[in-house]
Amino acid sequence: MRQSFKIAIAVGATVAILGPLGYFWQQSLVPSTYDMASMGYPDSGGGQQAGHAHGTGGLDVATLKGPSTGDPDVAVTLTARSENGKYTLNGTTPGPEIRALKGQLVQVTLVNDNITDGITLHWHGLDVPNAEDGVAGVTQNAVRPGQSYVYRFVAQDAGTYWYHSHQVSHEQVRLGLFGALVVTEPVFSEGIDQVVQVHTYDGRRTINGAVGESPLPAHAGQVVRARVINTDAGPLRAWVSGAPYRVVAIDGRAVSGPTDISGKAVTVTAGGRVDLTFTVPASGAARVDVGTGVALVAGGLPASAEPSGVVDFLSYGASAPVGFDPAKATRKFDYRIGRRVGFLDGKPGFWWSINGHLFPDVPMFMVSTGDIVRMTIANSSGEVHPMHLHGHHAVVLSRNGVAATGSPWWFDSLDVGDGETYEIAFVADNPGIWVDHCHNLKHAADGLLAHVAYTNVTTPFRIGGADGNSPE
Asked: What would the pLDDT profile of 93-118 be if each residue is shown by its tens digit?
């Protein structure tokens, strides 16, 4: 009898422990095929509520396309291949640099030669119509081997951008499926316009695919615009030696009233871009460094120590109007990044959380066209997260309660360090279903991913299934 009682207690204790674990395990499972727009729970941010499924018969993502007629001003075909353990576009990585003038119609035909997982192209930082955004399972199906897909969009905003795959992106970007996209003003400007695309291959940092020091083709008196693009998973520091320099753009948006910088570096967020300008001095010697001895060098200027100071974009430049009033926000959201023990798709671990929830039980931030949106992004996860919102640029209002006082700090990619809190704002002016995720792409694959979704917008595309869509 006593032995039976002990067994009963043991069984009861086991059920008490395994029962809840089994429940949480079951709740964490992600279907093999699902509609991203139906995952998690709706967060209306205090604004007008709407159905999480965005209703029936709503606006189809597939209709939110760029111009369907007219000859393109810029036409490019990019053929993706898997070869020798890396991915290439037209046989190179980085892929070909695409350049357009502001207002031109761009057409890119993506051809998948042999990449078995499928591919897409996302135009990082360029606010294109939703159907052109290139997110597998949300705005299109992945392009399978032997297939092609055509993107068409107007390059509405001059700036420095880049493109990359958004299918199994944490692997495909790291292994080479990316390239630079530059949109310039339709006016002639003398000087050197130089892309500085930073990527790490097999543990070696490169600029435009080259290790070590590369020549900067500039001479005394020339103005250089160095477009630094960080395609890696973590932040980097960039600086100019031999001459004072200015930060003239961040994430494709001009800086108001930039001033000379000497003896300091700038932080370039993962996925982010910072444009630096400087005049090559009379000696003809200057260099643009991105750390670990990788640089563009003019006139043989030797390397010097990395500056200890860092430019603070919260106060850099001169204040200017942002074009809307954040105090009149119609939606207010919290995006609290943490980490906790739990199950993600049935796998136990220590996972990223959003507002205390693990993927897929994460918020869907619901907005309507014309809304003014404020969002507070707080990070207590122990690591830095480069947060990237598709389809929109937001402006930083404050960091850790300190208001922004410099040039409006517009961004699409923002480093939120451990223990930091940013308040940001943007106008919901681009209908669709948009990814809002960490651009350390492995973090996104491990659940640090949410969406900003417009009410009454639907998508016919599905994650998983026969198309094998896997955006992260």
From this structure: 999 999 999 999 999 999 999 999 99
